[in-house]
Specification:
Elements (H helix, E strand, L loop, with lengths): L6 E7 L7 H12 L3 E7 L3 H11 L3 E4 L13 E2 L1 H6 L4 E5 L2 E5 L2 H13 L6 E5 L3 H12 L3 E6 L2 H10 L3 E4 H4 L11 E4 L24 E4 L8 H8 L3 E3 L1 H17 L5 H15 L1
Parallel strand pairs: 1-2, 1-3, 4-6, 7-8, 7-10, 8-9, 10-11, 11-12
Antiparallel strand pairs: 3-5, 5-6
Helix pairs in contact: 1-10, 4-5, 4-9, 9-10
Bound molecules: 2'-monophosphoadenosine-5'-diphosphate (ATR).
The site of 2'-monophosphoadenosine-5'-diphosphate has 17 residues, from helix 5.
């Protein structure tokens, strides 16, 4: 039951109606007996959104598309990783002092490391050059990976490749790379290709894939994308999109409350919700 002292957490974005974050955070508050509620707000203007965090005393916020970059200028301080990435997905309200953090980056790297072990020195191909690709690419750079940014459009792809000292390939030239494919250790799709309803699409030519590779997809609806099915068929190790979503959400919950939540509980709640939707 909510009272006059219940703490408020929220997500800001546009759109936010499909976000799984309210489901997950409220389930955890409930399970852990924390007097808090987490709500979704679809907003047009992040400056006003940040003012509402201050004026309503919102304790913490998740930030999603399209505000992860523009929010930086409205906060009081930004942690080192978020500053380097240039994107914030978590805001903490410390007695009116607003701090921006980024858990997308560790959210991508941790599940990958759980599957492959250390990624240092590995050659990773990141498909996409948007906000998600940026967080993944900076994380990989920090881990000491060799990076190739693969993107449909050249300008955006080259820009990100330069920022992380990587090389750039267009998506079409990447998909013609069959002879060089043995040099690729990890492929990560950060685009929405393969997401419902386009479940038969994959950004990667299956003939590139081989059993030495690990393939990760950040799309989690469906959980087993065409890319991951093709990767499994080729004998690759795979990491599904829920892994990243859960890791970044768990890191966010820990920043909000100081408590490390159960990843299994989070996964179960999301899978239940996804299966209800079918
Ligand atoms: P996000 O912040 O979630 O990463 P974004 O900034 O809109 O979203 O970036 C989407 C990325 O997916 C981009 O790299 C985009 O490629 P372009 O830079 O060429 O636009 C890529 N993308 C989206 N739809 C795609 C498609 N159908 N085929 C290939 N790449 C696609």
């Amino acid at each position: 039951m909510f009272t006059a002292t219940t703490s408020l957490y929220c997500i800001f974005g546009k759109p936010v109606s499909h976000s799984m974050s309210p489901l997950v955070h409220n389930m955890l508050f409930n399970q852990l007996g924390i007097d808090a509620v987490y709500l979704a707000f679809e907003i047009d203007d992040m400056k006003n959104g940040v003012e509402s965090i201050r004026s309503l005393g919102i304790k913490g916020a998740s930030i999603t598309i399209p505000f992860k970059e523009e929010i930086l200028e409205h906060l009081d301080s930004i942690d080192e990783m978020a500053l380097e990435i240039g994107a914030v997905n978590t805001v903490l309200n410390r007695d009116g002092y607003l701090v921006g953090c980024n858990t997308d980056c560790s959210g991508a790297i941790e599940p990958l490391k759980e599957t492959t072990g250390s990624v240092a020195g590995k050659h990773v191909c990141i498909i996409g050059a948007g906000g998600a690709a940026r967080a993944v690419a900076f994380g990989m750079k920090k881990e000491g990976c060799r990076i190739t940014i693969v993107n449909r459009s050249k300008n955006r792809g080259e820009e990100l490749a330069n920022l992380v000292n990587g090389r750039f390939l267009t998506l079409s030239s990447f998909n013609d790379l069959t002879d060089l494919s043995n040099n690729i250790d990890i492929i990560i799709n950060t685009t929405s290709v393969g997401m419902t309803p386009d479940i038969d699409k994959s950004p990667v030519n299956p003939s590139i894939l081989n059993e030495k590779m690990t393939v990760m997809d950040i799309v989690y609806n469906p959980l087993k994308t065409r890319l991951l099915k093709n990767a499994e068929n080729a004998g690759c190790k795979t990491v599904d999109g829920l892994a990243m979503f859960i890791h970044q959400g768990a890191a966010q919950f820990e920043l909000f409350t100081g408590i490390t939540p159960s990843h299994n509980l989070m996964r179960e709640a999301i899978l239940k919700k996804l299966s209800c939707k079918k």
